[in-house]
């Protein structure tokens, strides 16, 4: 069994880097704070006797040797970047649970046949740079290193520059790194486990996701003298599209999701009719056919709205991954470890994307969820119980040991 | 008659300070560029033999002595601050037309009984700081100097600090400065004159205006795992209010106006359901009773939407002035000057607020409009014809001479 207190203390220490007033964490990908967080975790891994390699997209692999070191490693991991108003657990838990597994094996002098690796992947959140789950996406070949390097934040800084600046642009070619099996522990980020009063969520699949940038182009003009019928008001046309995103999601229950999380208005002056409004659209579903229908309804609605309003509307898909069912062997290992340890459990479909969906393209993969308070995540008040975090880590330990062999 | 070319050249020279790539001007109130613009105009005034005084809110008065210098001055003026995507003419024309009147009087050695003054008022646009028309508002006592000093831009800098910083916090107490009559020339900023093919707009009145900040408070949560029916999505509630602003304006034709020009989303991340959305509302009408009804409909709609959605919505009125009918004597002077000069003319209600509405609280006031291209203003492509600008300036010259007496 792992040391729950040590796991909790590591989480709290990492959460101090970028801590916010409201008790959350703001540690955006590839900022100075991200570098500090990375340095702390790498330091811990080295102290635990692990060797560290970094690839060209900044993914970090921390390795505990196996007795047969030629075997592909049994890997676990997640990310340590956060949302602008993020919490202490999203991602960080998965990385530090992996570290706690290694510390526990060290405590008991347990050697595994296959090596154990703990990874943290670059820019999982996708807040500062798109695509989301960038490090694992490049690693599995979902998109190229060049594409990722060229991604810009709102201030025009690129991933390539920022990786270089914080000293985490490694040498290893992404993907040039075998994986035997991949596990990821994570807070659920939704209310299902808490509502059902279960401790461990076994994750059969992750919803697919489609992200768009939508830009409405009208004509700036003065808010006073310009008669209502002569306006080309980009804000008013955007406000027609925003509710449709939710309406489409509601037409595909129970797993349809639709969100407009980001909006920028140009020139953003109160007495100027907006000439341009740019906003994001996030559509999800666990069924790819339904996600495609949602995509088609969105596209058709945009075309109709453009025709009716006479304004230009550009809809650009900026990220997409299909729903990802996990591998039965790995899901099975999670199930049997949970049963052995006697935790209450249920299956939970993941609405959030995770690095595990990209790892799943290269190796048998699966995930372990634990409850989070009120199902709230991507919020500074995100919270989780130490006992639940410990339970998830114990399941991880036993499931990994089953694969890595003692 | 004035020198149209000299007027045009002055406009083009001033427009170089803060010139934008698209041919417009960005010279926000109390920035370094505003200081440069102010210095240029003050330099021209001194070269034309005028004396300059500055009051505590940064209004600048440039005076040409009269033969009876104890008479209250006949004043003209406007503003030289611009929108973030502003044009070359809005405001600037009114100030430089005044300067051109003085230069013309100098050329012909004409002395007036009453002194002539040309003013430029601080922060007319209200983009960087609210209230709008700040300098003339403080001057006429519509709100206090302290209130204006405390106004903050989005970066938290105050009007008081910024005035001090650019060296335009003068000594004179605002309003401690008599006015005999006030004229203001301005581009129409709407399409009426151009549509009717008239050169001079006589302005009987300016619409009243009500400005609000509206803040919707929901709950940030993850865009993927959070089921649709459990969301408290501030963006979706904001998107219900935005079209109502236009619907209300459309219920009070022909002078009802409604605009949402500004929006800020928090935390503005594409996979976070927005926890807070803040936006501006601009309502106008030329009839105060109708403007009040629009205000009441807005308030009632907000209350209903808050009750229906269960989210918190705060509506705060941040600016208000009632419709302003101008003084018959000054409007008459504009009419007779236009007739004498033989320009085509019509009456045009002003949808934009102007410093003249505050001057009107202290002295008989009126305005002269000239056409602008396609009725477009608050846009970098704002344009006007040299011949029209010259015509408006000629009307100003003759109307002012009628009041100031030769
Ligand atoms: N787990 C997580 O928050 N991933 C970010 C990508 C997403 O929006 O699902
Ligand atoms: N003339 C002008 O653009 N004034 C700004 C205030 C308003 O929005 O009417």
From TrEMBL, chains A, B:
<comment type="similarity">
    <text>Belongs to the peptidase M20 family.</text>
</comment>
<feature type="binding site">
    <location>
        <position position="378"/>
    </location>
    <ligand>
        <name>Zn(2+) 2</name>
    </ligand>
</feature>
<feature type="domain" description="Peptidase M20 dimerisation">
    <location>
        <begin position="207"/>
        <end position="307"/>
    </location>
</feature>
<dbReference type="GO" id="GO:0016813">
    <property type="term" value="F:hydrolase activity, acting on carbon-nitrogen (but not peptide) bonds, in linear amidines"/>
</dbReference>
<feature type="binding site">
    <location>
        <position position="125"/>
    </location>
    <ligand>
        <name>Zn(2+) 2</name>
    </ligand>
</feature>
<keyword id="KW-0378">Hydrolase</keyword>
<dbReference type="GO" id="GO:0046872">
    <property type="term" value="F:metal ion binding"/>
</dbReference>
<dbReference type="InterPro" id="IPR036264">
    <property type="entry name" value="Bact_exopeptidase_dim_dom"/>
</dbReference>
<dbReference type="InterPro" id="IPR002933">
    <property type="entry name" value="Peptidase_M20"/>
</dbReference>
<feature type="binding site">
    <location>
        <position position="90"/>
    </location>
    <ligand>
        <name>Zn(2+) 1</name>
    </ligand>
</feature>
<feature type="binding site">
    <location>
        <position position="79"/>
    </location>
    <ligand>
        <name>Zn(2+) 1</name>
    </ligand>
</feature>
<dbReference type="Pfam" id="PF07687">
    <property type="entry name" value="M20_dimer"/>
</dbReference>
<keyword id="KW-0862">Zinc</keyword>
<feature type="binding site">
    <location>
        <position position="186"/>
    </location>
    <ligand>
        <name>Zn(2+) 1</name>
    </ligand>
</feature>
<feature type="binding site">
    <location>
        <position position="90"/>
    </location>
    <ligand>
        <name>Zn(2+) 2</name>
    </ligand>
</feature>
<dbReference type="Pfam" id="PF01546">
    <property type="entry name" value="Peptidase_M20"/>
</dbReference>
<dbReference type="InterPro" id="IPR011650">
    <property type="entry name" value="Peptidase_M20_dimer"/>
</dbReference>
<protein>
    <submittedName>
        <fullName>Hydantoinase/carbamoylase family amidase</fullName>
        <ecNumber>3.5.-.-</ecNumber>
    </submittedName>
</protein>
<dbReference type="InterPro" id="IPR010158">
    <property type="entry name" value="Amidase_Cbmase"/>
</dbReference>
<keyword id="KW-0479">Metal-binding</keyword>
């Amino acid at each position: 069994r792992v040391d729950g207190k040590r796991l909790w203390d590591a989480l709290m220490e990492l959460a101090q880097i970028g801590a916010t007033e409201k008790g959350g964490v703001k540690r955006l990908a590839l900022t100075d704070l991200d570098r500090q967080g990375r340095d702390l975790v790498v330091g811990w891994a080295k102290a635990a006797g692990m060797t560290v390699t970094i690839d060209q997209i900044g993914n970090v692999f921390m390795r505990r040797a196996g007795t047969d070191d030629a075997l592909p490693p049994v890997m676990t991991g997640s990310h340590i970047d956060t949302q602008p108003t993020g919490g202490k657990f999203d991602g960080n838990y998965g990385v530090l649970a992996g570290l706690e597994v290694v510390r526990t094996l060290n405590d008991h002098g347990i050697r595994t046949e296959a090596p154990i690796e703990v990874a943290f992947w670059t820019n999982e959140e996708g807040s500062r740079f798109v695509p989301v789950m960038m490090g694992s996406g490049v690693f599995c070949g979902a998109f190229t290193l060049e594409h990722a390097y060229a991604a810009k934040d709102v201030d025009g800084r690129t991933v390539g520059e920022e990786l270089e600046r914080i000293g985490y642009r490694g040498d290893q070619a992404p993907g040039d790194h075998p994986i035997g099996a991949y596990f990821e522990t994570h807070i659920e980020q939704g209310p299902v486990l808490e509502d059902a009063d279960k401790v461990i969520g076994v994750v059969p699949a992750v919803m697919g996701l489609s992200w768009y940038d939508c830009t409405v182009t009208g004509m700036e003009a003065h808010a006073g003298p310009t008669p209502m019928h002569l306006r080309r008001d980009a804000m008013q046309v955007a406000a027609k599209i925003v509710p449709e995103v939710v309406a489409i999601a509601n037409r595909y229950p129970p797993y349809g999701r639709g969100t407009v999380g980001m909006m920028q208005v140009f020139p953003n002056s109160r007495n100027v009719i907006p000439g341009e409004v740019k906003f994001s659209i996030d559509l999800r579903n666990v069924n790819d056919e339904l996600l495609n229908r949602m995509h088609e309804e969105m596209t058709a609605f945009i075309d109709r709205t453009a025709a009716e309003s006479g304004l230009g509307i550009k809809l650009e898909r900026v990220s997409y991954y299909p729903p990802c069912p996990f591998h039965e062997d790995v899901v099975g290992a999670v199930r049997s470890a949970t049963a052995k340890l006697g935790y209450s459990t249920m299956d939970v479909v993941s609405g959030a994307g995770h690095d595990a969906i990209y790892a799943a393209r290269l190796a048998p993969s699966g995930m372990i969820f634990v409850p989070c308070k009120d199902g709230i995540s991507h919020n500074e008040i995100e919270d989780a119980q130490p006992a639940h975090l410990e339970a998830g880590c114990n399941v991880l330990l036993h499931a990994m040991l089953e694969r890595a062999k003692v």
